[in-house]
Specification:
about 350 residues; alpha+beta; Jelly Rolls; 6-stranded mixed sheet; 8 helices; 19 strands; about 20% helix; globular; JmjC domain-containing protein; JmjC_dom; Cupin_8
Length: about 350
C-alpha cells in the first residue's frame, strides 16, 4: 500500500498539483470553467467578476451594514479565546485533545463590528490578545436567513457556475472577522466559490491526493465557554456525542516530529484580494487566515454547490483507507454538531472517516 501511495503522490505532483494558483480574468463561460478547472479539479482565482456588486462599495461602511441589517438586530457570532474555532486543542484540566467548537452568542451587528474593530486595532496576534475573538462564520446559508437584508448586494447565484454544475448553490454564507481568526485545516464536500469583499484571505491548499499524509484522527467534541463571573474561558467536553474526525496539523507551523507524514504533503499558498473569487474544488484541503488594514473587518461571501460523488470521490476514499478502516459517518448523525454547523442538519454537508 505504501508503494502505491508513493506512486500516487509522485504522479499527482508531476501531472496534477499546481505549483501556483492561476489567476484568470473574467468573465468566464460555463464551458471554459467546467473544462479548465472543474473537470481537472484544480483551483483558480477569477478576477473581474464582482466589480459591479453593490457589496463592493457598500459593505466597507459599518453604518451601512448596521442600518441595513438593523442596529438592534441580533445575529449569531462565534467567540473563542484564541481565534481557532472548530480546531483541535488540548484541555489543560485533563491534558486531552478535543475538537473544540466556539461559543455561540447572539449579538447586535453594531456591537459585533465595534468589538471586532477594537480587537483588530491592537495589532496583537491571537496568542497575545486577551480579548474575546469574534467571527461571523455560521455555515448554514446565513445570507438567506440572518443576513437576508444584505443579499440584494450580491448575486443570488453565479450563473456560469450554476450552468456548469447543473444546479443552484446549496448555500451562500457570509463571513465577517479579523486577522485574529483562522480556520483550521479541513475539506468540504462542496464545490466552493469564495468571494472576498474586504480585506484579504490567505489560503493554504492541499490536494485530495494528500489525504494519507494529514494525520486525520478522531477527537472527543467540546465547546468553548466563557464564565461571566470570572471572565475566564474553559473547554466543556460534550460527552453525549461521538468523536469527530479532524486534522490536528497546523500548516503554518507543522510539528513534523508529531506529524512526520506531513512532510510528504504538497501545500500551495495563495492570497485572495478584494473583488477576487477563488474556485476551491470539492475535497481540496484548506486552512485559511485573513488580514486587513486599519482594523477593518475582513468580509467574504462563499457559494457552495453540491459536489458530484463520481470516480474522483471513489479514488479519494481508496487513498484514504490507509488512514483508517472506519466507514463514513454524516455530521447529521451527530445532533449537537449538526445543529451547530449546519442549522440543525439543514445542509447535506458531511464529515467523513474513511
Amino acid at each position: 500500500m505504501e508503494k502505491a501511495l508513493s506512486g500516487l503522490r509522485e504522479d499527482a505532483n508531476d501531472f496534477y498539483v499546481p505549483r501556483v494558483i492561476k489567476r484568470t480574468k473574467g468573465p468566464i463561460t460555463a464551458l471554459a470553467f467546467l473544462r479548465d478547472y472543474v473537470t481537472p479539479n484544480v483551483p483558480v482565482i477569477i478576477t473581474g467578476l464582482v466589480d459591479d456588486w453593490p457589496a463592493m462599495r457598500k459593505w466597507g461602511d459599518d453604518d451601512y451594514l448596521c442600518d441595513t441589517i438593523g442596529r438592534e438586530t441580533s445575529v449569531t457570532v462565534a467567540a473563542t479565546p484564541c481565534g481557532r474555532a472548530d480546531a483541535v486543542h488540548t484541555r489543560e484540566e485533563d491534558n486531552v485533545e478535543y475538537f473544540v467548537m466556539p461559543e455561540e452568542r447572539a449579538m447586535t451587528v453594531q456591537n459585533a463590528l465595534s468589538h471586532m474593530r477594537q480587537s483588530a486595532s491592537t495589532n496583537l496576534s491571537s496568542e497575545e490578545s486577551t480579548d474575546d475573538i469574534l467571527y461571523v462564520q455560521t455555515q448554514n446559508g446565513n445570507l438567506a436567513t440572518e443576513f437576508e437584508a444584505l443579499a440584494k448586494d450580491v448575486e443570488e447565484e453565479l450563473p456560469f457556475a450554476s450552468e456548469a454544475f447543473g444546479q443552484k448553490p446549496d448555500a451562500v454564507n457570509l463571513w465577517i472577522g479579523t486577522h485574529l481568526s483562522t480556520s483550521s485545516l479541513h475539506k468540504d464536500h462542496y464545490e466552493n466559490l469564495y468571494v472576498v469583499i474586504q480585506g484579504e484571505k490567505h489560503f493554504t491548499l492541499l490536494p485530495p491526493t494528500d489525504v494519507p499524509y494529514l494525520h486525520t484522527q478522531e477527537f472527543p467534541p467540546a465547546i468553548y465557554s466563557k464564565h461571566t463571573d470570572t471572565h475566564t474561558w474553559s473547554v466543556q467536553p460534550q460527552t453525549d456525542t461521538d468523536k469527530v474526525p479532524w486534522i490536528p496539523v497546523d500548516t503554518d507551523k507543522p510539528d513534523l516530529q508529531k506529524f512526520p507524514k506531513f512532510k510528504l504533503a504538497t501545500p500551495v499558498r495563495c492570497t485572495v484580494k478584494p473583488g477576487e473569487m477563488l474556485y476551491l474544488p470539492a475535497m481540496w484541503y484548506h486552512q485559511v487566515s485573513q488580514s486587513s488594514t486599519n482594523g477593518d473587518p475582513v468580509i467574504a461571501v462563499n457559494y457552495w454547490y453540491d459536489m458530484a460523488f463520481d470516480v474522483k470521490y471513489c479514488y479519494w476514499r481508496y487513498a484514504g483507507r490507509d488512514v483508517s478502516r472506519r466507514r463514513y459517518k454524516y455530521v447529521r448523525s451527530h445532533p449537537l454538531i449538526a445543529s451547530y454547523w449546519y442549522g440543525k442538519g439543514q445542509s447535506c454537508m458531511s464529515v467523513c472517516v474513511v
